[in-house]
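Q: What residues go here?
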């Protein structure tokens, strides 16, 4: 038995070596990240947050279309760790997606190197730790994918680039928050909103205590800046606005939009936008930058506001007085949805490729499969409150789905995820959607709960063609935007409403579809879609990386490739340990 396994692993090693990926002449960008806790007090309460390379938020990955990024992640936390690259499509490469369905977690004290190509994409995205609610403790940072030099950008080069990470924040740490969810409790009202890891400017002495550090964005009068804004929070939709300044929306998660002016925009959990902001005001004082909790009422939420400062170099004083007003639409629930519908693709501009992206006429393609994915409010399953999609609360197997496939391990998951909601009682399952390679699918997210959800799909961008209140029916298709819907990786779904998306299943792999809201995601509101080429080959999917980690039913596998790349001392100690390992 033991010797069989020796032979098997050796064969694997040879196969892996033969399949070593070569990206030819594409430029490489290497990142080496030490991931550890640091102690800060963004809201005046000392707490441990997850820092990447000693920074919170982490460093920006600044790459260009088609570059190959390698990211060596050193896990100095006391928990397993994986990073996912939100919005990066990882073409042919779910191996590097950094979610439990594709990767074994990096154990504490260990490091592991991601290697992926940012293929045919541009735009503003972010990375974050995908396990155990860790994003509620930080660990996030920006990803910029620049255009190749030969590709035009539909606006003049801005004078500067500003990154804003906005998100609700709890002074309880992520392990305490996890415990609350495990006990069936709600996370409750957040303690505040952070902007770039910092608390609010003291715009109101009652609401904001003394001694809190706030973010200041320094600008030159008359110049135009690109603001890349990401909602990295746990579960609160935020309204974003800059006092006295217009927001010219130019990009939504990798698509250049029709350039339109907004005085404020709702940014839901996990979403990213770029705005151009021109410093065209008389800077008699500084200005407020605000991100306030949305769709809430009651004074408990008064503190759930992030406030940063926009400071002109010729500013003559501090910002003071009331914050710019939030939309007053408590009695008009269509406001936010209409705003979302107004975000459309600029059909006359290209993105990562020279041809205009609108030339991909999604309206002319026949839909091959329809999925209605419905979530409800939390439901009790075996005495625990869980979140579901179509009655199924996803139970992540200990073996990544993609790895189980590679080693033909059956029984890890089932391919029977229902394509429409049924009558069965809610249940926990490792149930996966059987996607059809090269299919063109319609997914309708129906939110039958009471809180707004953002749905996200890894590996893809989808066309957000429609949204409406009530239950989706076949007739709802009449309201779809079949002309210039925006193609992006996330969409909000309002409570009591639906959102429809179209996706071309051209990227082979096993891909996560999840609620970006940390609480419902943690409680099972996710599913995977498995898309395999019936004639597998390494043009449609890259071979398994040679540094792959093993876990679950494959935990006894030894990655000889890794062993052989270690230094001699490590090699000797591993050889000494290995026979012991193989005995068990
Ligand atoms: C892809 O497969 C072909 C043959 O099946 C092999 O010759 C080639 O080296 C492989 N390429 C990569 C990058 O693995
Ligand atoms: C990484 O962080 C840990 C904990 O802060 C520290 O002990 C270690 O020296 C750091 N390593 C590097 C390479 O910076
Ligand atoms: C989180 O908070 C709990 C107390 O609620 C504490 O026991 C634990 O050590 C904290 N963990 C981290 C990583 O800060
Ligand atoms: C990103 O890199 C490009 C060049 O590749 C550079 O022009 C740009 O200023 C950089 N942006 C940031 C925010 O570092
Ligand atoms: C761990 O980091 C070292 C360098 O610090 C690197 O040589 C090695 O390849 C990394 N291991 C993995 C599995 O990525
Ligand atoms: C669309 O893109 C074109 C070409 O880049 C640009 O000239 C035009 O201003 C854009 N139109 C709108 C409405 O954003
Ligand atoms: C500060 O906030 C409190 C509580 O919302 C409010 O009552 C008070 O009027 C505010 N103060 C100022 C100066 O706006
Ligand atoms: C700018 O504001 C100052 C102070 O309010 C005022 O005196 C000045 O006239 C203003 N200038 C312009 C161009 O509006
Ligand atoms: C907040 O909204 C809820 C539900 O819409 C309502 O029941 C409650 O009375 C409202 N509270 C306040 C303070 O307006
Ligand atoms: C789409 O389906 C219609 C009929 O259902 C058919 O006539 C048409 O050729 C199909 N179009 C494509 C591009 O397959
Ligand atoms: C999954 O779908 C493919 C066609 O796309 C089909 O051949 C296969 O039988 C399906 N598998 C299961 C388990 O339903
Ligand atoms: C949820 O679904 C039920 C039955 O389908 C319906 O009566 C109810 O109005 C829905 N609630 C929401 C918030 O969508």
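A:
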């Amino acid at each position: 038995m033991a010797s069989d396994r020796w032979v098997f692993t050796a064969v694997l090693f040879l196969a892996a070596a033969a399949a070593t990926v070569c990206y030819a002449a594409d430029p490489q960008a290497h990142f080496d990240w030490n991931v550890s806790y640091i102690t800060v007090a963004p809201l005046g309460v000392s707490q441990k947050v997850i820092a990447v390379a000693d920074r919170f938020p982490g460093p920006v990955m600044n790459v260009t279309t088609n570059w190959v990024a390698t990211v060596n992640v050193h896990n100095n936390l006391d928990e397993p760790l994986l990073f996912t690259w939100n919005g990066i499509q990882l073409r042919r490469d779910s191996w590097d997606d950094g979610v439990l369905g594709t990767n074994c977690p990096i154990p504490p004290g260990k490091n592991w190197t991601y290697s992926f190509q940012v293929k045919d994409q541009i735009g503003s995205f972010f990375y974050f730790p995908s396990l155990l609610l860790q994003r509620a403790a930080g660990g996030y940072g920006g990803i910029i994918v620049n255009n190749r030099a030969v590709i035009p950008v539909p606006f003049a080069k801005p004078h500067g680039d500003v990154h804003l990470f906005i998100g609700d924040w709890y002074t309880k740490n992520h392990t305490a928050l996890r415990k609350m969810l495990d006990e069936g409790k709600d996370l409750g009202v957040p303690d505040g909103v952070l902007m770039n890891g910092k608390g609010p400017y003291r715009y109101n002495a009652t609401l904001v205590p003394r001694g809190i550090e706030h973010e200041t964005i320094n600008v030159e009068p008359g110049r135009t800046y690109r603001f890349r804004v990401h909602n990295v929070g746990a579960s609160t939709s935020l309204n974003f606005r800059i006092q006295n300044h217009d927001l010219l929306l130019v990009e939504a998660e990798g698509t250049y939009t029709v350039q339109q002016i907004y005085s404020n925009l709702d940014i839901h959990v996990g979403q990213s936008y770029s705005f151009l902001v021109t410093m065209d005001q008389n800077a008699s004082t500084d200005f407020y930058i605000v991100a306030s909790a949305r769709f809430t009422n009651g004074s408990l939420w008064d503190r759930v506001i992030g406030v940063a400062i926009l400071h002109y170099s010729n500013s003559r004083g501090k910002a003071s007085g009331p914050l710019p007003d939030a939309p007053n639409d408590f009695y008009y629930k269509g406001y936010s949805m209409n705003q979302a519908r107004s975000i459309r693709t600029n059909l006359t501009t290209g993105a990562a490729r020279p041809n205009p992206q609108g030339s991909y006429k999604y309206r002319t393609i026949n839909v091959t499969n329809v999925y209605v994915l419905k979530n409800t409010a939390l439901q009790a399953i075996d005495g625990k409150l869980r979140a579901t999609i179509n009655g199924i609360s996803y139970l992540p197997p200990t073996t990544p789905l993609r790895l189980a496939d590679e080693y033909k391990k059956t029984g890890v998951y089932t391919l029977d995820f229902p394509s429409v909601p049924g009558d069965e009682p809610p249940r926990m399952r490792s149930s996966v959607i059987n996607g059809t390679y090269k299919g063109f699918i319609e997914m309708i997210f129906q939110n039958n709960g009471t809180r707004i959800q953002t749905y996200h799909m890894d590996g893809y961008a989808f066309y957000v063609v429609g949204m409406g209140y009530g239950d989706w029916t076949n007739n709802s298709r009449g309201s779809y935007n079949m002309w210039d819907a925006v193609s992006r990786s996330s969409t909000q779904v309002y409570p009591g409403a639906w959102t429809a998306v179209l996706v071309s299943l051209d990227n082979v792999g096993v891909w996560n579809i999840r609620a970006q809201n940390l609480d419902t995601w943690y409680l099972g509101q996710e599913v995977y879609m498995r898309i395999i080429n019936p004639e597998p080959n390494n043009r449609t999917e890259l071979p398994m990386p040679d540094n792959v980690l093993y876990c679950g039913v494959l935990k006894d596998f030894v990655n000889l490739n890794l062993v052989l790349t270690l230094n001699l001392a490590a090699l000797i100690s591993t050889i000494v340990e290995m026979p012991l390992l193989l005995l068990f």
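A: Context that may help when evaluating the design: The chain has four domains: 2-20+546-582, 27-148, 153-327, 360-532. The first helix runs from residue 2 to 18.
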